[in-house]
Design a protein that fits this description.
With about 250 residues, this protein is an alpha/beta fold.
Length: about 250
């Protein structure tokens, strides 16, 4: 069971999303529930995934006043969510409140720069010309690290730089993963699975290349195989050995 390649269930209904999970079968152990699916199905879809033995990445991208975010983080912890996202742009106070509310069983991830933003989009968000998305991702990642969160979400294009900032013990989750030569859809800064792990990612998120494929199980197997090769072959001394991140008695915490 692969828990480093996370499949994004960006679907409008629980029935369709869970159908994809069942088609992929035991090979995938980690799924992302995004805003659309969670709004449609609520906590029940998280429970259904947990009943199937899957880890759940709730991609809430929380961004509100500290007390509201802290409350939402605590409720997500009660659902048994493994990963939960908050926007780093919410500021130090919000990030610190979120970290304080998170149970030990859940990893909070700070979202840095969305992979859907190109140069024009970055300029619109930050109010100035942004020639280096990595600099903005790095700045936000530093704030996430200092607030005590367990990891960051960033493009694989910025992962190597962010790894130097957050150090060896934190998760780096990279969306915008596409097979070489495949369609990028609404993503802009995309990379392959192999490139992401080579850059220092601990987990990757892949959606439509798997969920939109005629055979989702085969598509997942192909991406997982590429990811496994990259993790075996690439020497990444800046990342702590996996065994040092695993608590005693827990063989695969993902």
């Amino acid at each position: 069971m692969n828990r480093r390649v996370i499949v994004a269930l960006d679907a409008p209904r629980a029935k369709g999303a869970l159908g994809i999970v069942d088609r992929i079968g035991p090979a995938c152990g980690f799924y992302k529930v995004g805003l659309e699916l969670f709004t449609a199905a609520g906590p029940s879809v998280v429970a259904s995934l947990r009943e199937r033995g899957k880890h759940v990445f709730l991609d809430g991208k929380l961004h509100d006043i500290p007390s509201q975010v802290a409350g939402a983080v605590a409720r997500a912890g009660e659902l048994g969510v493994k990963f939960l996202t908050v926007h780093a742009a919410g500021g130090r106070g919000m990030l610190a409140a979120a970290a304080a509310a998170a149970p030990a069983s859940m990893t909070l991830l700070g979202v840095t720069v969305l992979t859907s933003l190109d140069a024009a989009g970055l300029e619109a968000v930050f109010g100035r010309r942004v020639d280096d998305a990595g600099a903005e991702a790095d700045r936000l990642a530093r704030m996430v690290r200092d607030a005590g969160l367990g990891g960051v979400v960033c493009s694989a294009a910025e992962a190597a730089r962010v790894r130097e900032t957050v150090g060896p013990g934190r998760r780096i989750v990279t969306p915008g993963i596409r097979p070489a030569g495949g369609p990028v859809h609404d993503q802009r800064r995309v990379r392959t699975a192999g490139e992401a792990f080579a850059a220092g990612a601990t987990h990757i998120v892949v959606g439509r290349p798997v969920t939109g494929a005629p055979d989702p199980a085969a598509a997942f197997a192909g991406i997982a195989a590429e990811a496994d090769r990259a993790r075996r072959d690439v020497d990444r001394p800046v990342i702590a050995p996996l065994h040092s991140l695993i608590p005693p008695g827990n063989p695969d915490p993902a």
